[in-house]
Design brief:
This protein is of the alpha/beta class. The chain contains 8 helices and 11 strands. It folds into 2 domains: about 120 residues, 3-Layer(aba) Sandwich (Rossmann fold), CATH 3.40.50.2300; about 90 residues, Orthogonal Bundle (Arc Repressor Mutant, subunit A). Strands 2-1-3-4-5 form a 5-stranded parallel sheet, with helices on both faces. Helix 2 packs parallel to helix 3 and helix 6 crosses helix 8. The longest helix is centred in the middle third of the chain and has 15 residues.
Length: about 220
């Protein structure tokens, strides 16, 4: 899952980025509203973590701009503004959740999982495709009931494909999910991940639609 973090407090931004990365998220961190708009204009993120007190263009302005553009990216406001009026303004502007600083990184992770489940129309925390079961709460994939030992990026590929079960996922969409702005991507990186997943989860788990992308079917 790729997250855009918009936070101008260096120490907090670094702590949130590092904490989420340890949980297997891909995090792009920017520190002002203008850079946030540029990132959101070019890249599809699974969620946006948005501070309100930003230099230049404040968080509410970014949020209103995002919704006016028709983007449905889930947004969690993370802010020290704890007045009821501030919460109402943020939610009315289009935020999906509102978290007061200071907060626990585990709670932030739980809120991210909850809003992304709502976006794809799911209430449960597990996804199943044949003998493959993905537990989003524990970030664990089992095959025939046994843990599979996936890497963080392999897990991210499986989660993306299973959330979009039955639908085509392109190579570009997988790359956007796995790699941040500062990451280098080897030319065969996606093929290597798919090869490893077929070895760990069975050769029929992922269907390769040649020249188009990949798909996982629920009925396998």
């Amino acid at each position: 899952m790729r997250i855009l973090l918009v936070e101008d407090d260096f120490m907090l931004g670094e702590a949130v980025r590092d904490g989420l990365c340890q949980e297997g998220y891909v995090v792009d961190w920017v520190q002002d509203g203008g850079t946030a708009r540029a990132a959101l204009s070019t890249t599809a993120f699974s969620a946006l973590l948005l501070d309100l007190g930003l230099p230049g263009s404040d968080g509410l302005s970014v949020l209103r701009w995002l919704r006016q553009k028709g983007h449905t990216t889930p947004v969690v406001i993370v802010t020290a503004r704890d007045r009821v009026a501030d919460r109402i303004a943020g939610l009315d502007a289009g935020a999906d959740d509102y978290l007061i600083k200071p907060f626990d990184i585990d709670e932030l992770g739980a809120r991210l999982r909850a809003i992304t489940r709502r976006v794809v129309g799911r209430t449960e925390s597990t996804l199943t495709a044949g003998e493959v079961v993905l537990d989003m709460r524990q970030r664990l994939v089992t095959f025939h009931g046994q843990p599979t030992g996936l890497t963080a990026r392999e897990y991210a590929v499986v989660e993306l494909l299973m959330r979009r079960a039955g639908g085509l996922v392109t190579r570009a969409e997988i790359e956007e999910e796995l790699y941040g702005f500062e990451d280098e991507i080897a030319s065969n990186a996606i093929e290597v991940h798919i090869h490893n997943l077929r070895r760990k989860l069975g050769p029929r788990f992922i269907t390769n639609l040649k020249g188009r992308g990949y798909r996982v079917d629920n009925d396998r």
